[in-house]
Amino acid sequence: MYQADLEKVHNSAEILADQLRIDALPQHVAIIMDGNGRWALERGYSRIAGHRAGVESARETVLLCRDLGIPALTLYAFSLENWKRPQEEVALLMELFTEFFQQHCRQFLQEGVRLRVIGRIELLPKPVQIMIRELERATQAADQFTLTLALSYSGRDEILSAVNKIVRDTEKGLVDRHSLNEAQFAQYLSTADLPDPDLVIRTSGESRVSNFLLWQIAYSELYFTKTLWPDFSRRELLMALIDYQARDRRLGGLSENKECPEQISDVSKHAEFFYEEKDKEAYRVTSSLEKCWYQPVSLASEPQDPSLVSSWLD
User: Fold this and answer.
1) Does one domain contain both 241 and 274?
2) What is the pTM of this model?
3) pLDDT, tens digit, for every residue of 123-171?
4) The sheet that has 283-287: what strands, in order across it?
5) CATH of the domain at 161
6) Active site residues
């Protein structure tokens, strides 16, 4: 949904901070930082000026998430598709990434920020690759806050890479393809040591995920705001978090305030059909599809031919 109702728009960051429930914050926030170019063009600046302004918004967002106690933040900084942009802009962006790492290296170490970079790192300029690896090693001991930058990243490419790794491990006898499950698959992704994002934010008014963490955001809450990324402030992030806390996150189950005593975690266990023998020639079919699993609901009544029961199940 688009950013909060009109009443919140006029609230200051201080008022919004008072509304925030610290005990219900997301464990992982992912942000598609969009709108740097448009922000610059609206002001008559060059596109790279917009990217520089976006870096400052990223810095403030990192610090606020860390201060609030959100354990993980992932920022979509440069997609695999972004290599198609004009060569001059790409070169300037690479310089900007280098500046960012140089300027904030000491701060990351002092503030206990663990830095990780995901994506096709091998496509980045060698100096950037070296800087990334050094920063990752230097900050790997930090365990309070993880900042992940998606650089030269593609969700589809990540999934394809995971599949190829699984195929290789299957051939080596390390993986049993017949018992492979979602949890095992996720271990082959670049975010294997992170929880899936609870909240995904996209700025600039676009309402799409743009090939970002496609596997990981299956149950994420999506928040779209028309604010351009360089204008994304502390207040904007607080509004997104408050909106998130108003959501009813069922993750495919039932709300905690429903009558059903438990959320269904094993579909194969609870999606059962019950047959009551009324007499030798008639059966009643009941199912758990509309109420709690312990309260069967009749879906068919007294079919004369038992084969009719199985025909709509097949």
Assistant:
1) no
2) 0.77
3) 999 999 999 999 999 999 998 899 999 999 999 999 999 999 999 999 9
4) 273-277, 283-287, 297-300
5) 3.40.1180.10
6) 34, 82
